[in-house]
Write a structure and sequence with these properties.
Elements (H helix, E strand, L loop, with lengths): L4 H12 L5 E7 L11 E9 L2 E9 L4 E7 L2 H12 L4 E6 L2 E7 L5 E7 L21 H6 L3 H20 L8 E6 L5 H12 L6 E7 L2 H14 L5 E5 L12 E5 L5 H11 L4 E5 L4 H9 L7 H4 L2 H22 L2 E7 L10 E7 L9 H14 L4 H5 L1 H5 L2
Parallel strand pairs: 8-9, 8-11, 9-10, 11-12
Antiparallel strand pairs: 1-2, 1-5, 2-3, 3-4, 5-6, 6-7, 12-14, 13-14
């Protein structure tokens, strides 16, 4: 049952300020009434030379900022400031229980409490905290170097943030599909992370790629890791895949409109979380080249390299806008430094429940004006035509 938001937040305060029981807390998402200063905040106790402190790591779209506050007035002031931020979700784990608070569209709190917590890990790791230990056998089997491990860690941080916002089933295995999985190193990392997170989840993961050699390679790796009962791979086209219910959909570097096929599959199967890192964007680039750029963008479209970059931007902008119209909260972020891959854009979408939570009439009008001005018909718009008509 919905609760008074102020009262529910006050109930979180002693949990966040308990140095002996707090394991970890995460705040993420936003409310309809406002946007917090950070995309995501993590809170946990750490042991420093000066004694136990409350550590707060705040993430924006580019970097993470860490501060350590002594328990007492400094920590209390920090926690009060965080609770005053318009975050849409809180996930608080203690040694005894896990509390999840979600702010509804009416500004009330939906609170779920589950018995059973975790163990404190209060060591102050001055290096970056890895979501999968760099020495994990997974990386040996995958042959992942330091660069790949950094990409894995960056990807998992985006996934971890989405998990705190999404409403996922607790009474059955978590179902994940990677559409266009390729060599699947992020697929395997997602499985490893989810089965070890918060005491572990029962996870069923399917990777789909049109190349049979990828299915054979990845199936052999799953067997080597001892995961073949839960991690399977299929050879086939994304658009024609026969999928059951999906909780988390991944589309990592699927080429051109294959990303749109993956996003449409995710929407049609009501996926709670969608993470897509697009690759090439040829479809809209071709449409822009064949048409006339709206004033005053003619000077930009005159140059092929700039025209193609505009095609990249428009493609991901319309994808984000369309996902909002069918009921997702959407962020477009740089999930890893361009030093490691030039294709570092991530579309991160979490199902909000109903379109009205995230898309206003003004947003729909802005989208319609944008595609009309450029004379484009995005492939995803075509694939979601029935969904858009009913939103």
């Amino acid at each position: 049952m919905p609760e008074d938001l102020d009262g529910a937040l006050r109930a979180l305060r002693p949990l966040l300020l308990d140095p002996d029981r707090l394991v970890r807390a995460v705040a993420a998402g936003r409310r309809r009434s406002g946007t917090p200063d950070w995309r995501r905040v993590e809170v946990r106790p750490v042991d420093l030379k000066a004694g136990r402190h409350l550590q707060v790591v705040a993430y924006d779209d580019r970097a993470a900022t860490t501060s350590n506050q002594a328990y007492g007035d400094p920590a209390e002031a920090e926690v009060d400031a965080l609770l005053a931020q318009p975050f849409g979700n809180w996930h608080v784990q203690t040694t005894a229980e896990t509390v999840q608070l979600r702010v509804t569209k009416k500004g009330q709190a939906q609170v779920h409490r589950a018995a059973g917590g975790g163990e404190q890990a209060t060591g102050h790791d001055r290096a970056a905290r890895h979501l999968i230990d760099p020495g994990d056998p997974l990386f040996t089997v995958l042959g992942a170097n330091a660069s790949k491990r950094r990409q894995v860690d960056a990807f998992l941080r985006v996934l971890d943030g989405a998990l705190t916002e999404a409403r996922l089933p607790a009474d059955r295995p978590l179902r994940i599909v990677d559409l266009g999985c390729g060599n699947a190193y992020l697929t395997f990392a997602a499985y490893r992370f989810l089965t070890g997170r918060d005491g572990g989840r029962d996870v069923r993961l399917t990777g789909i790629d049109r190349r049979p050699e990828m299915r054979e390679r990845n199936t052999a790796i799953a067997e080597e890791l001892g995961w073949s009962g839960s991690v399977t791979f299929e050879a086939g086209d994304i658009a024609g895949s026969e999928l059951g219910p999906v909780d988390i959909a991944l589309a990592l570097h699927a080429c051109d409109t294959a990303t749109d096929d993956a996003l449409a599959q995710a929407v049609h199967r009501d996926a709670a979380i969608v993470l897509a890192s697009p690759c090439c964007h040829h479809d809209l680039q071709r449409q822009i080249s064949a048409g006339s750029a709206p004033a005053p963008y003619g000077v930009l479209a005159r140059h092929a390299i700039l025209r193609d970059r505009m095609g990249d931007l428009l493609t991901d902008a319309v994808r984000a806008a369309l996902l909002r119209q069918v009921g997702y909260r959407v962020d477009v972020v740089a999930f890893v430094s361009a030093e490691y891959t030039p294709r570092n854009t991530m579309i991160r979408a979490v199902r909000a429940g109903v379109p009205e939570d995230v898309a206003t009439d003004e947003a729909r009008f802005e989208y319609a004006e944008l595609v009309a001005a450029w004379g484009i018909t995005p492939h995803l718009q075509t694939l979601l035509a029935d969904d858009l008509a009913g939103s």
